[in-house]
Amino acid sequence: MIVSKQIVLLLIGSLAIVNCEYSLKLSTNDITVLVDQTKNFDLLLNGFVNSAINVTFVKATEGIKLADLNPSEILINTENQNNENESFPIEVLGKKAGHLEVETQVNGEFQNKKDLVLRILVANNGTLIYVSIVIGWIYFAAWSISFYPQIWINYKRKSVVGLNFDFLALNIVGFIMYSLFNVGLFWIPEIQKEYSAKYPTGVNPVLLNDVVFALHAVFATTIAIYQCFIYERADQRVSVTARSILGGFLAVILISMGLVAGDVILWLDFLYICSYIKLAITLIKYIPQAVMNYRRKSTIGWSIGNILLDFTGGALSMLQMMLNAHNY
Asked: Which residues contact 179 (CB under 8 A, 6 or more apart)?
């Protein structure tokens, strides 16, 4: 009989613990609001509380003048909780253009969970937001199409004479590095977890269009390289200088992979190294073609469409950044 009473008490205690469990999250973690206008989001409570909890929204110091939250503090107790799932509305007032992060304190302690971090973007002009989006898609299209004028010229001429092989070699390696970075952060859960652990309040920087562009760039560059094997190419080949540079990049990659295998760095760090290699290649890849054009005193075999589309994409990308800088 005593044993059965102990079991009953244990079950009651367990149920009490379960009933005390609750979870908090925000209805959105990212909100965009215009200056002098308001937007709303909700604090969502799941489960019952058995004692009062105090939820406070704390703005980063540099963001104090950018936006106001009303209320900035919510007291939840058994009296104002009617159902297991409750929502508490909060209003955001934009005051000055900029970006700020709001962290959540529960009973005086910061909660570093991603679903309790709010990122607020305050913009000057709503129209510019949509103009920026349109410009972004235009330069994405321009950069994506830019590969094909060169492929078409090679096909029409049945020749790749005038197309610098160093440019192609650097380009394919650069886009492979870019693809590794994007695919890793977008599709591999383990790397996403490493990113979340390293940047608890950060947003994954890779979007689907980044992955599509990178993989498409590898595909299109591979076609151009294939043309170099089947069409006339004269005595063109990858130079010793380009081979040395690519050999240096290969050494960096192999060493980095060894460091990952030895648990010295994370796979996320390896992907960032890949992205730095892509950046370095972007800075130098056009130089061999420019030197070749200068020496030949000719651009025959080199597509002006490629350059115009690449230039258009780059110019629109910079325009988008300037618009965003003004708007935010």
From this structure: 211, 214, 215, 217, 218
